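User: Could you go from structure to sequence for me? I need the amino acid at each position, not a summary. Structure tokens:
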């Protein structure tokens, strides 16, 4: 039975992205729900209705493996000239995102201090995850002395609330942001992941693209084991994947790979299905309402203040969307927003911002937790 479930999950992750890519033919529904959103929702349905019952570790492995293979293929389109020309605005937007997250989280924690006994721990973990990523949430939680159950509760709330924000970002979010911020000329918001600007790559070319990605992933994994003896340092692994992929994109034989971005997009959709499979709503049943409310308030405050500051400092819509995704979701999610706005050139500066966030997150999260504990 377990083998059948594993085979079924793999089959679903392989096939459903193709069906999601056909969503552009679904009329108004297809225009509203991008393939990214459809894959995430489908994964959540399968998980929370127990239609797939594979071990959580297997789901995590499938999700991580698909995004690790996708990243090199998506980065082959890197444009260092674009990064150089837009470095200032991306750095500014990133700094504003960090400032917004810190102020919003601290302020909202003060409002909730009488409703949540461990408010210092919860606020520290939420700041860490909205500056860096899930790894930072766990690290900060342990650093602040939180119990494993409480860390799991905050993480579950973040998955549900953050997942909702991700759905907004990859559907109507870009159009809403464009109403507030200066719209970058390259932003058309007409491209959604899965639209075929080029013919579908031939099977041999698909295999060649995958082989190149496997080689880069193998080198990155090898370096991680060589230096750390394990794969627990996700920031280092992402950094290796990014660096080697950018270097490889300059090779002539890599430039000859036709359809590498399309193959990477398909792997990205597989990642979205796997991500949905990790969203377990049952963890929030019983005693989790106050944490969910705190998380909703924190993310709304963070995004709202970041958007206001971006308006004041004249940050364009693309930079805001990418840095908001980078800080709140981390490196693996940058390709999703890049596909949504139809500009793969933002992937590299987005990943750079996300990696900086990961480096800062533990310091800020633990620091805020200590400050709140001292004040309250």
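Assistant: Here is the amino acid at each position, in order:
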């Amino acid at each position: 039975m377990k083998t059948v479930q594993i085979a079924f999950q793999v089959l679903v992750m392989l096939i459903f992205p193709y069906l999601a890519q056909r969503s552009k033919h679904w009329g108004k529904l297809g225009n509203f729900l991008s393939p990214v959103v459809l894959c995430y929702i489908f994964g959540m349905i399968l998980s929370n209705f127990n239609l797939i019952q594979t071990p959580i570790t297997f789901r995590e492995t499938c999700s991580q493996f698909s995004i690790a293979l996708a990243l090199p293929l998506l980065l082959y389109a890197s444009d260092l000239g674009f990064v150089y020309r837009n470095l200032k605005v991306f750095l500014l937007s990133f700094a504003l995102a960090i400032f917004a997250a810190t102020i919003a989280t601290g302020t909202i924690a003060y409002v909730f201090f009488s409703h949540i006994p461990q408010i210092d721990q919860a606020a520290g973990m939420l700041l860490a995850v909205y500056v860096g990523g899930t790894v930072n949430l766990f690290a900060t939680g342990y650093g602040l002395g939180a119990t494993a159950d409480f860390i799991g509760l905050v993480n579950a709330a973040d998955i549900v609330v953050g997942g909702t924000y991700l759905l907004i970002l990859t559907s109507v979010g870009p159009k809403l942001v464009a109403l507030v911020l200066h719209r970058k000329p390259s932003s058309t918001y007409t491209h959604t992941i899965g639209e075929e600007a080029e013919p579908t790559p031939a099977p041999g070319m698909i295999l060649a693209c995958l082989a190149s990605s496997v080689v880069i992933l193998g080198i990155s994994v090898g370096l991680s084991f060589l230096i750390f003896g394990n794969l627990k340092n996700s920031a280092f692994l992402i950094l290796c994947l990014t660096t080697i992929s950018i270097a490889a994109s300059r090779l002539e034989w890599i430039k000859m790979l036709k359809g590498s971005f399309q193959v990477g997009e398909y792997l990205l959709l597989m990642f979205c299905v796997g991500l949905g499979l990790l969203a377990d709503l049952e963890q929030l049943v019983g005693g989790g309402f106050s944490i969910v409310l705190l998380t909703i308030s924190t993310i709304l405050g963070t995004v709202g203040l970041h958007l206001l500051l971006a308006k004041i400092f004249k940050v364009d819509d693309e930079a805001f969307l990418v840095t908001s995704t980078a800080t709140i979701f981390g490196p693996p999610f940058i390709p999703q927003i890049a596909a949504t706005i139809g500009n793969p050139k933002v992937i590299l500066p987005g990943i750079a911002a996300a990696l900086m966030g990961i480096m800062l997150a533990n310091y800020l999260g633990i620091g805020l937790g200590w400050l709140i504990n001292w004040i309250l």
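One structural detail worth keeping in mind: The chain has one domain: 78-193+201-258+285-375.
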